[in-house]
Design goal:
The chain is built from 13 helices and 13 strands. With 373 residues, the chain is an alpha/beta fold. It folds into two domains: 136 residues, 3-Layer(aba) Sandwich (Rossmann fold), CATH 3.40.50.2300; 185 residues, 2-Layer Sandwich (Alpha-Beta Plaits). α12 links the parallel β12 and β13.
Length: 373
């Protein structure tokens, strides 16, 4: 059997909604096809389920008029076969037959029909229902396309957000890390120390700071070159990281000056830790492309509440820095504590600090009471 088509021009059919008519009787099928053409549709005809399935496989009609009697008793399976055969999208199906009562119409709707009409001849209501089905189908397809576009957009923006988060994380790490040694920078250390000091003040906890300086580091740079000096700084930072606990913080304040914040650590514990650090650094051999050298360090210590003059995080950092100069004055490769400074000197430094607060350590002792490093 061959598929019969209306005699409309091909160009006109491309502009008109295509409706497939499945009806076993040729005369009624022709009447429906002629009527559809007059209503502005492009009809295609099939006289059996197999022919309808072939048509749906070859083309993609916009809707289907299915004669219930022509489909037989297994109309639900016919509807499923026709929808599966359509190449793309869901096929709207209007089932019609003469004398369909309410129970039969409900049964056909349960079997998957979109519309059910009791008619023998096409009429205006059929045209309206077909247009409604086609409109609903277009809306459904638009919705599906919009959903796909939306899901693609969501996927795209999720990827973008992940990239931005990774970038922000990298930027944040760069903002709080020293680019050479990868320990924290001075800005982050001061923020951290402010927070830890408030915690210690509120909960009556102990807190210590060690200021550390590499002895005669300028000589290392001058004699071995800046690449070797950078290598010494990175290796030294690694030694500091290996010595501290996870709760402590190591930071490069600037140049060859580093700081360590020791939480819940009193004076004696911090002194023991500083002595271990002195030995660890002195015992380490710095080897870089055939160059070998060793270094020593000087350490200044201050703590809260062991040092009674300390009333702020800034003072804690400054007093440890002043103790560092005391260690330098003692001959380097040594640890000195704030409380070891003369009482008059400590008093003058504490008073000067309260009168003229400094946002950060200046690299020189307050009031120039100590020699240059």
């Amino acid at each position: 059997m061959t598929i019969q088509e209306s005699a409309n021009p091909q160009a006109a059919q491309e502009q008109q909604p295509c409706v497939l008519i499945l009806h076993a009787q040729p005369r009624p099928r022709e009447r429906f096809a002629t009527w559809l053409t007059d209503q502005g549709f492009a009809p295609r005809q099939a006289d059996s389920v197999e022919q309808a399935v072939d048509t749906l496989g070859d083309a993609s009609p916009d809707a289907m008029l299915l004669h219930a009697e022509s489909a037989g008793e297994s109309i639900g399976k016919v509807i499923d076969r026709c929808r599966e055969a359509r190449r793309a999208g869901r096929l709207p199906i209007l089932v019609f037959d003469a004398g369909l009562d309410g129970g039969r119409r409900a049964e056909l709707l349960r079997h998957g029909a979109d519309e059910v009409m009791p008619l023998t001849e096409p009429d205006e209501e059929l045209a309206l229902r077909l247009h409604a089905l086609l409109h609903g189908s277009r809306l459904r397809e638009d919705l599906l396309r919009a959903r796909v576009i939306f899901q693609d957009s969501v996927t795209k923006y999720r990827r973008m957000i992940k990239r931005m988060r990774r970038k922000m994380l990298r930027l944040r790490k760069r903002a709080i890390r020293d680019p050479l040694t990868r320990v924290y920078n001075g800005h982050y250390f001061r923020q951290w120390l402010n927070t830890q000091f408030e915690i210690a003040l509120r909960y009556d906890l102990v807190l210590s700071v060690l200021m550390i300086d590499i002895d005669r580091f300028k000589k290392v740079n001058d004699s071995s070159g800046h690449p070797f000096g950078d290598f010494v700084l990175t290796q030294f930072a690694d030694i500091l990281r290996q010595q501290v606990r996870a709760s402590d913080v190591v930071a490069r304040i600037g140049g060859d000056e580093f700081a360590i914040g020791l939480v819940e650590t009193g004076r004696q514990e911090s002194i023991r830790f500083g002595r271990r650090l002195l030995h660890a650094v002195a015992a380490h051999s710095f080897e870089y492309f055939g160059q070998t050298d060793s270094i020593t360090i000087s350490i200044g210590q201050a703590g809260y509440p062991d040092d009674t003059e300390v009333t702020s995080a800034e003072q804690l950092l400054l007093f440890a820095d002043q103790a560092l100069y005391k260690a330098k004055e003692n001959g380097r490769n040594d640890l000195a504590c704030w409380h070891e400074l003369e009482a008059m000197t400590r008093s003058r430094l504490a008073v000067a600090r309260r009168k003229s607060p400094l946002p950060q350590t200046t690299g020189k002792p307050a009031l120039d009471l100590m020699p240059e490093k």
